[in-house]
Amino acid sequence: MEWNHAIQLWPQYKVITDIPEYNPIEPYIPKTFAAEVFRAIEKAEVDTSQSGAADNEARVAVLIRVILVEISSLFSGAVSNDAEGYIAGTASSQGRIESIYTVLGACVNVVLEVKAGGIRNRNFAQMMAELESCDMLNVSRQLNLNTLQGVLSSQTEWHFWAYDRRGFTVSEAIAPYHRDEKQEIMNRLKIVARLFGQFLKGYCPALHAFIRRSEGKASLNHSSQH
Known about the structure:
- This protein is 48% helix and 19% strand.
- By secondary structure, it is an alpha+beta fold.
- The protein has one domain.
- The strands form two sheets. Strands 1-4-5-6-7-8 form a six-stranded mixed sheet, with helices on both faces.
- The longest helix has 44 residues, at 181-224.
- It is globular, with a radius of gyration of 18 Å.
- The relative contact order is 0.16.
- Residues 83-96 have low confidence and may be disordered.
């Protein structure tokens, strides 16, 4: 999807700077957990370099995969890779996704997109389409979340997203690689904390959505018996 298509779907956003700023939560990350994540990242990056696959997309994919594996192990959810798949929404909005985090195999909470090189306007448009499409998928399953989370990442910048059907919000960019080692560590810690926060923020509402759906079905069954 190109940005001019996004303008047609969401006319309130003429330029990407019209999208309100998102301030994701950054929960406290225990030092032991952070150390585990950083060790896993270091090992994965070494393995990637030795395999000769250290191009931009591979480096980003390694980074996000390692963080996802470590974080998802703390939750009863699943991260599925669907790089070749499409999630259909309306006729005018269809999103291609890289990975999604789901609870109980049905409720989408976080949409994750990996891009080689820099982030461009069309990547923003694509993320918007993906978030809307996944929200429609949840609704079709009678699993309504107030907010859906998203991550748009590249070698040079990460953006965190939120979508609540009224509109989108997006965070400022965070650089996962930096010439200053201390700044790089701080940036990566911030990325881990924000992604952990998105999983945490989506997990409990997803469970509540399943409860509401079950209660609704139980109410219908009770009514049909009288």
